[in-house]
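Entry:
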Amino acid sequence: MSHHRARPWALWVGALLIGALFLRVWGVDHGLPYAYNADENAHFVPNAIGIFGHQWNPDYFVNPPAYTYVLHLVFAVVFGGREGVSSTFATDPTEVWIVARVVAAVLSTLAVWVLYLVGARLFDDRRVGLLAAGLLSVAFLPVFYSHLALNDAVTLLPVCVALWGAAGILRHGRTRDYVVAGAGLGLACATKYTGGIVLLAILGAGAMQFTAPAGRAALARSLPAARVTAVRGVALAGLVGLVAFVVANPYVILDFNAFWDDIVHQTEASSEGAGKLGATQDNGWLYYLWSISWGLGWVPLAAAAAGAGALWLHDRRLAWVVVPVPLLYLAFMGFQDRFFGRWLLPIFPFVCLLAAWAALHVADRLGARRPALRPTLLAVAVIALCGQGLVYSLHSGLVLSREDTRNLARDWMVANVPIGEKIAVEPVVPDAWATDLGDPSPVTGTGRRWVKYPVTRSYIDPETGRELDRSGTGVVVNIEDYQRIVRPELVDEWEDQGVCYVVSGSTQRGRGEVEPQKVPNAASFYAALENQGEIVYQASPYVEGRGPVEFNFDFAFNFYPLAYYRPGPEMTIYRLPGGC
């Protein structure tokens, strides 16, 4: 294609990338200076900063460290190294979080560009590439998780690079295609372990070299020679993938025991869904199909399903590259006990390609009968595929650009609760929430603005519900088990110990409300809190007259429903007269 003819495509892709980046950085400062997402607050940014103090070993392999290393290098450039980033993070972490989130947004946007290249190469049709990239650019799940310093959306980039290499293997079978595919595979695994699913696409493309390449007038080499080249190429891709994985995660070898221990821990955690209070889904396959229906869209889901079947009949060679990956990934993930919509992101490029091809295939066939309607049909295909994602991603940007309810609650506390007052805060905010960042209080002895009751330490065993010996220190309770240890008597205990204010959030209360049979004391605890306490402040995340949204581990934290006006849970502050 001439440079003149390619120019309109470049303009369309450029406009698409600008729009994708805008959606991903709009509201990027949500919640700050506090990172309210527990995974974001605990993993990549703190570990990237920690590397300044203990060389390159992340000492953490539950998630692979590629994104951590990227952040570490970016922090070194932006903040000038350990002293600069550490002091900034301690006194005003907003800038650090924004830099980390923008890095995720940029890498996610680059994935949109690479997916365009994949579609153009794999289907030999720029329209498929552009429509698939457009769908990925506006789909809710990749857009929302590009706002967080997490590895989920970032993984899309190496997955798409590997898929681009696989497309080259299918079309050309060159050595460099195997190298690119292997490099993308290794980096995908080093960013998020489940990104390794793209290996199936590489194997599918290599296997197709064992058949006569379709659509070529003549073979450049004999079929036996092509098969030998394919075997060598797949082996080369595997070797390059292994090298890329080790380069991006060197301590998988240098600290293998720690790596293996964390892998075992992660595997066990994925099998503990029955113990995760509030995880009401009990069928992983239905859950993930439902997740695609809102994370990508109902029409894209239907189009991808139809496209998988049609492509299998229309072009079996192409189908072996694109179709098995989402099907086998869904089958595997459905077997796990924990389900989260964002865990689907590694297969989104495949689903986008199938949906785009199916929509254009239908538009072309109908347009062949009525050529005058072809432009209208193409426009309908674009709107049908991208409309739902665009609406909800724009809504997400609006929501995230507004003040978080947890920040509003804290502002009220600062204005109305004296420094040094005793408070109890449910585990819906990070520990730093009770501290004036950069200005620790000399009154409390801990630096916090208020004296916090240790709500996550209890004399109730969360596993059995039995009371422990109070001569000891009790047990530490994680945020997922807090509802298991609350009792009506806890309100009396708070008052006896002088707790004056209680800060409660719906993301804790909701866990018990959706599974009351598992936490029979939770309802009576909140009844006692409402009976003995006085509500002095409430902050709602909902549009006036709408909500609440029933607790769900996706919607409670990604604010997908249109009922949300601002981010955060419903926050309620009680005053306990007996404690004051």
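The two ends are 77 Å apart (CA to CA).
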